[in-house]
């Protein structure tokens, strides 16, 4: 095979322009460090958007990948396989759920959840019970149904008529939610912590109120835990911290630590409303992805690992507080576990991307959540030495952004 030489410029030549990737090209990673094609190292606080919860190149995951890769990658949904059965058993043993459906992404898991909720309501109550309630600034995926349900209109505009029966309400406003949920509501879908919407944790009373209202009106409560799940907030799933159990839960991102896999978890009674042929997937639950995900869940469900999430989260907050004392850059730091958002103060309004770019120039990979929030979603087992080194670099980046802002003023 002839070698094809590529670089960052190749993206602009051959890729559909739905992304604007960084100027450097990551090449390899180990733990919480990434090296680009020029050999430069970066401390990774993004985790592939809350995906690589066990870091890059975890030896136990590599072992499973190689072992299963030597056996069977894919067989199709006319058959089952042992890895997917073990994964389903592990997830149902660890959660409220009795049944699992596997897909390739969080969007597909949410698509399945929303379709199941509609099917359940129509089967039980009739064709009028189809309303789905979601919340402003929510994000549930990029399929047409999920962008319509998501609370960020920019992602759904320009594609023609949207699915009907969807209503968006203010997040954390229980009074409006209680007023809106009715006998026509088939489902309420909510993120326990809004990720893309700015790292906004739900008030416990808000989620409890949604649970009670759904029970009153025969609606299903769906927790989108695509970003908060698999240890990110300090428990295996965030619902466990809130003491509120959903009817359906979706999970992806960290579930495969970078191998594409998503899942919808639900109860036996609800699952029975999906019959053979009603929904499906070609790749979902393939043995290669399922074997990796099972090992991920085994490792992350370890109480000692989950305790470490809180330790690292506290360390990040302490660094942010120290930096803020020096620069006054943040209005608020919020989140749960290792999903943390730092909202910029008015003096730095709309400068989150500037911080991200300055961080990259200083050897740090970071995230934003809108124009005013810097987001941290690193490996749950990030070495403390890397965390401290990363913040030394971040402080230099923030010093540069603060200096530029002062000159501009």
Number of helices: 14
Distance between the termini: 56 Å
Under CATH at level 1, the class of the largest domain stands as Alpha Beta
E-strand count: 17
Query: What amount of the residues lies in strands?
Result: 15-25%
Stretches with pLDDT under 50, minimum 5 residues = none
Structural class: alpha/beta
Instruction: Record the strand order, biggest sheet.
Output: 4-12-11-10-7-5-6
The CATH homologous superfamily of the largest domain corresponds to Type I PLP-dependent aspartate aminotransferase-like (Major domain)
Main pleated-sheet profile: 7 strands, mixed
Considering DSSP H and I runs of 4 or more, what fraction of the residues is helical? 40-55%
Structural domain tally: 2
The CATH architecture name of the largest domain reads 3-Layer(aba) Sandwich
Backbone CA Rg: 22 Å
Global mean pLDDT? 96
Dominant shape: globular
In CATH terms, what is the fold-level topology of the largest domain?
A: Aspartate Aminotransferase, domain 2
Cofactor: pyridoxal 5'-phosphate
Main location: cytoplasm
Subunit structure: Homodimer.
Subcellular location: Cytoplasm
